[in-house]
Specification:
The protein is α+β, with helices and mostly antiparallel strands and 89 residues long. The protein has one helix and five strands. The protein has a five-stranded antiparallel beta sheet, with helices on one face. Strand 4 and strand 5 form a beta hairpin. It is globular, with a radius of gyration of 14 Å. The model has no long low-confidence stretch (mean pLDDT 84).
């Protein structure tokens, strides 16, 4: 059986629109969880790094990492975890 990444569905609370992503990797740095997700599980596709946030209701919310310094640091970690993936900004 082929080893395929898991899928995760996100719900936009403003539009109630669902988006499906493939989870390529997960890591935790300084107590913060991050996901590396992609729109497709094929080569040369858009990928996003998401930071996990928790709300008072124990809901989990993810937001796209956009801060250049944080993005560079987390990208380096994911690059070490997944040696066969190359990131282009």
């Amino acid at each position: 059986m082929e080893d395929r990444p898991d899928k995760i569905v996100f719900l936009d609370p403003d539009t109630d629109e669902e988006s499906e992503f493939f989870v390529l990797e997960q890591t935790c740095i300084a107590g913060v969880s991050y996901l590396l997700v992609a729109e497709d599980d094929e080569e040369d596709c858009d990928a996003y790094i998401l930071r996990e946030l928790r709300t008072d209701e124990d809901d989990i919310i993810y937001e796209i990492v956009e801060d250049d310094g944080e993005l560079a640091a987390i990208t380096k970690v994911f690059g070490e975890l997944l040696e066969d993936i190359e990131f282009d900004f």
